[in-house]
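TASK: fixed-backbone design
INPUT:
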């Protein structure tokens, strides 16, 4: 005769079965990869940014820090300002810091010389221009023989100037450069001690507001080529194996922050953070509105388009900053971590949109 369970025995058996089902489900869930699992406390990452005070690209990492986006994705990031992006780049090469925002021409030039570097994120829209407080300097040709403020030899402003001068068949040797790293050149123009300087959009606006006069812009880098690449977040290639998830979390913070900054309702908050660059809040608002419109901080893409980087290599081969054939987009870029970070933030797989110039 078959014995049947009933009453207390049946209830006990049901409870045991349910417990087993829950235990198995928990085990399977814990074994499956998830966003929560990816977000474990990361190793410390020191991030170098250019300028003391920082130039305006630094607004995003400072927003990520102050609004808690790095913390949200468990990125353990310490921001460290450097006099120039070139100095930050050298610190990465020397192993003194983990990552740095560095000018694309300088980073590519270092890679061309064999530096153990890879770009893991980028800002692919340039805003460089030559600005003059002397209204008689109106054209590119007028720059011949002028003293022009840059950051440092082979720095971001220096290389941008070389590219801009090529528009009117001048070279860097046709002008005299003086070093004013970060916002120092802007301050010198405000004081009237420097007539011509390589500027960002926000710096032009600050000079005009304080001096009460329009800045003359004889040349912009977009006049030479609107599809040049601006800046790269670089790390040592050899560090990626040990810091893959640390970089992924940093990038997740950047992706979330860019989305936050793109929303008009957050303009006032971000503009207040933007005053860390040395501009006032009103100018920061103007600059942020312009930069957001031009997608200076790329929205939902890694900012490392093949077309733009290849064109930047080409222009700098032309100016002599990069030897021909020494570096390519493929050898310079690693987007694996950014794509994984994008999925972590959005829950979606990143699909690149076709673009003529990257």
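OUTPUT:
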């Amino acid at each position: 005769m078959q014995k049947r369970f009933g009453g207390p025995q049946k209830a006990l058996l049901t409870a045991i079965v349910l417990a087993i089902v829950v235990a198995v489900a928990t085990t399977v869930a814990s074994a499956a990869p998830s966003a929560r699992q990816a977000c474990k406390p990361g190793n410390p990452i020191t991030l170098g940014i250019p300028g003391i005070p920082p130039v305006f690209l630094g607004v995003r990492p400072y927003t990520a820090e102050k609004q808690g986006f790095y913390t949200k994705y468990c990125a353990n990031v310490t921001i460290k300002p450097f006099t120039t992006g070139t100095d930050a780049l050298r610190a990465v090469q020397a192993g003194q810091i983990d990552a740095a925002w560095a000018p694309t021409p300088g980073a590519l030039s270092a890679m061309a010389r064999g530096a153990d570097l890879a770009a893991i994120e980028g800002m692919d829209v340039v805003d460089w221009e030559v600005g003059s407080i002397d209204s008689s300097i109106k054209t590119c040709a007028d720059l011949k023989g002028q003293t022009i403020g840059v950051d440092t030899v082979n720095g971001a402003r220096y290389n941008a100037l070389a590219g801009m001068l090529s528009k009117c068949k001048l070279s860097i040797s046709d002008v005299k450069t003086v070093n004013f790293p970060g916002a120092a050149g802007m301050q010198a123009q405000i004081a009237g001690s420097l007539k011509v300087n390589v500027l960002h959009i926000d710096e032009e606006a600050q000079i005009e507001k304080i001096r009460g006069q329009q800045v003359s812009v004889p040349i912009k880098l977009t006049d030479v080529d609107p599809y040049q690449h601006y800046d790269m977040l670089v790390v040592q290639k050899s560090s990626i194996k040990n810091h893959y998830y640390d970089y992924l979390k940093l990038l997740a913070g950047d992706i979330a922050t860019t989305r936050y900054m793109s929303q008009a309702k957050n303009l006032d908050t971000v503009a207040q953070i933007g005053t860390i660059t040395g501009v006032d809040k009103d100018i920061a608002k103007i600059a942020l509105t312009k930069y957001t419109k031009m997608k200076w901080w790329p929205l939902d893409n890694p900012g490392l388009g093949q077309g733009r980087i290849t064109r930047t290599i080409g222009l700098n081969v032309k100016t002599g900053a990069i030897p021909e054939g020494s570096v390519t987009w493929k050898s310079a870029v690693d987007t694996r971590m950014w794509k994984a970070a994008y999925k972590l933030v959005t829950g979606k797989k990143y699909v690149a949109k076709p673009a003529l110039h990257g």
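COMMENT: The first helix runs from residue 8 to 31.
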